[in-house]
Amino acid sequence: MSEVTAEMIENGRARDPVSATRRRRMTVKMRQAREKLTTVNDRARPYAPDLLRLFAQSHRSATPVMCLLVLAIGASALMWVPAPRVLGWGALVCMAMALLYGFSIAFLDSNPEEANLKAWRLKFIVAESFNGLAWAMIVTLLLQAHDPSARTFVLVVLLLVAAMTAMVASSIPFAVAGGLVPVTIAIVYALGPTTRLDSLALCFLCVGALVYFVILANRLHSTSIDGQSFRAEKDALIAELEQAKLNSDEARRRAEEANLAKSRFLATMSHELRTPLNAILGFSEVMKAELFGAHAVPSYKEYSEDIHSSGQHLLMLINEILDLSRVEAGRYELKEESVALVHIVEECRHLLAMRAKNRDISIVQSLDDGLPRIWADERAVRQVTLNLLSNAIKFTPQGGSVTIKVGWTRLGGQYLSIRDTGPGIPEEEIPVVLSSFGRGSLAQKNADEGTGLGLPIVKGLVELHGGEFKLLSKVREGTEVIVIFPPERVMNALPQLDPNAPEPEHAPVPLRRAPRRVAA
Fold it and tell me: Measured in Å, how far apart are the chain's first and last C-alpha atoms?
């Protein structure tokens, strides 16, 4: 058993620096997430860093596509405009896109906690406005050609730019406005004053498209806020789960240290208590038996008997506590061997027969003949049987009966059933009596005192064997306890040999069953 020192206990009570740091970080993260979720005045304000980052990421991804679009539009514009002027316009647009791309990369590489969000938002709005102005300059480039096809081409390009601006810059509404205003002015200039019906229809179409792009940008902005809200809620949930995990780990660590200290305490106290207790039991037995002569006062003999019985009760309590602690800690080692369940039950019944006779309780047996042996710990099986049978006799009123059954289970295992005609246990108290030091209300009224450790020890020992423990009880009808040993523990008996049968040339050597160990 591991030694428990004062330093270990003190360290267990102290806070781990690493865990404390993680807990503080989780607390800050949870507080930030909750602040985002509880802000109702301005929905976008708590998510300003996230929206700016989304804007920068969108422009970083869209810049290569926009460059290809500039090349395609410039190549098409060569049909109406000389190459130098097209190159000048292309350089202006590329400069605007390079400015946006540079701002985006710089913002993504910066620390959002230390960045000046208002300054970056202003930079993005100015850069997006300059980008829209550069695209709008295509009007002055192509309308001088005085070709209806060039005019139509300009309108298509400007509407395409307006659509891309509404989608890419939707996370910052003022940037969308800054990019669309120059484009809108350019479209109005390209349409010009006209009274022709087809021109009016084209004008209404362009205006409707611009209005649709504005509505689309607003919808995308709301969608972005909702997405960031869901992300904040997810982060808050993850932070709470991490906080709960840290609390669980801390509680588990403290429980392990407390269990280690408890085991050390029990081991030490068992030795310290048993040494003087053996002396008390020995000398009280000598005094009770009057080995060195009769007592001068007869009361001394009664006192000696009380001392001896109290010492035995205390020794039994110590043994039960130690057995239960070893079972719960998984340190109970099974010394398995081939045992006969029927013989153990018969021996236990014989030991308790006198106690049952004194209480006028009849014991009825129903034992199946020819049951094979089981691979189990004989001491543990005997303790299980004695505890269950003594409980049945203790809580059965005078004139009652206790029924013992041993037989096969449906799956090929073996079972032990002990049923009494006692007062029974209320259904809601069954978990209480199965817990350590738990006693039902009817047991507390019984004259025979108990520690409340018998059934938990029985249940633990049965589970160590891989078996099953069942407690069935009804008030005023009695209690039945069933212990089931699994089929894996039943040893298959060899078939009987016929003495008249001829011996085979090569008789098979019977294999001995290897002992199995049940993990604690």
Answer: 16
Residue 253 domain-assigned? Answer: no
Residue for token digits 């058993």? 1
Alpha-carbon gap, residue 353 to 390, rounded angstroms? 10
Gap between the Cα atoms of 487 and 490, Å rounded:
5
Distance of alpha carbon 78 from alpha carbon 293, whole angstroms: 135
- For the stretch 460-483, pLDDT in tens is 889 888 999 999 988 888 899 999
Angle at 164 between CA 162 and CA 165, to 5 degrees: 65
Domain count within the chain: 2
Name the residue among 400, 401, 443, 409 with its Cα closest to residue 424: 443
Q: Name the pTM for this structure.
A: 0.47
Residues 347 and 488: beta-carbon distance below 8 Å: no
Confidence at residue 518, expressed as pLDDT on a 0 to 100 scale: 35
In a domain, 269, yes or no: no
Nearest to 162 by CA among 216, 104, 242: 216
- What's the token pair of residue 352? 């308790």
Residues 378-416 as b/e (b if ≥16 CB within 10 A, e otherwise) read eebbbbbbbbbbbbbbbbbeeebebbbbbeeeeeebbbb
The pLDDT of 153-182, averaged and rounded, is 90
Q: Which of 392, 365, 381, 398 is nearest to 464 (CA)?
A: 381
Alpha-carbon 106 to chain mean position: 41
User: Is the distance from CB of 231 to CB of 32 less than 8 angstroms?
Assistant: no
Residue 484: domain span: 336-489
Half-sphere exposure of 378 (CA within 13 A, CB side): 10
Is residue 214 located within the same domain as residue 83?
A: yes
What are the pLDDT digits (tens) for 63-120? 999 999 999 999 998 888 889 999 999 999 999 999 999 999 999 988 766 668 889 9
